[in-house]
Amino acid sequence: MNYSRYLAEISTYEGVEKLREIERSSFFKIMNAYRPASYLRLRRHREPYNKDEQDAIMRLREFNLVEEVRDKRKSFLGREIFYVLTTSGLFYIFSNLLGYPPQLLIRYQDNIILNTLLFPYFEVDTIERSTARFYSIITQYLQECCRATLHRIDTIKKSTTANSTNMNLKNGDRERHAKILESDLQFHAKLIAFRLGVMYSESNILLMVNSDDVDDDSARVAIYELESTMKTILSKDKKFMQLLKAVHAEFGYGYKELRELKE
After folding, report:
1. Residues of the chain with pLDDT under 50
2. Are 68 and 61 a contacting pair, CB within 8 Å?
3. Assign residue 226 a region: left if phi > 0, alpha if psi is -120 to 50, beta otherwise?
4. Whether the Cβ atoms of residue 227 and residue 207 lie closer than 8 Å to each other
5. Which of 155, 248, 146, 230 is nearest to 188 (CA)?
6. Engineered SS bond to 130: which of 35, 135, 137, 214, CB 3.0-4.6 Å?
7. Could you give the CA distance from residue 162 to residue 46 in angstroms, rounded to a whole number?
8. pLDDT tens digits for 159-188?
9. What global pTM score does this model have?
10. How far apart are CA 178 and CA 262, in angstroms?
């Protein structure tokens, strides 16, 4: 994971306070424009954007939330144009905790944000097969990581002279901030591993099922089976289990040292 590169790319992000309704609508349309890869390869077509949507998309491009992609292959319509989310667009989604499907994470899995924050710790299949409860933990985790990133960027900006027009840092300072951010983000990764480890213990699965506002026993059984399946998926995720093992070891060391101090 290249935290220096991650920090450098996210440093260009400029928050958007509020999108107009048509801009939000167009943004969500692009965000949810997911198709299986084979469908994209064989049957891509131009999205039917009207004039208002085209103007809204131009604004989204000015905000650097989306970018234009031209299909290199020609169809009878000529070269077709598509719109995809930029790194800033993804960061806007994750930091604002907008409702977004797991397919979004799958589609943009090669983006530096997800390459840094999510997929070093989870297999793609695990995210793809998320239950609602598990996925809510994932989206919360991504939001917390984005907030930690924004805090680091804000610290960097404050550390530069107020009247300087050049926000570039010296290599030593850039690496120092990247190391601090790396520590912060890895701490959040350890927290999500600990949280999931506790959440998917048998007793807590039963507790969450019985605490649901569900009167139907058949529904309770279905929820239990769903979450038990998610637990099995997690247990087979080598990346997650490696993270959980590291957290278990660190927790054990910390517990041992505190016990020794007490004695």
Report:
1. 35-46, 76, 162-163, 165-167
2. yes
3. alpha
4. no
5. 146
6. 135
7. 46
8. 765 435 444 556 677 789 999 999 999 999
9. 0.87
10. 36
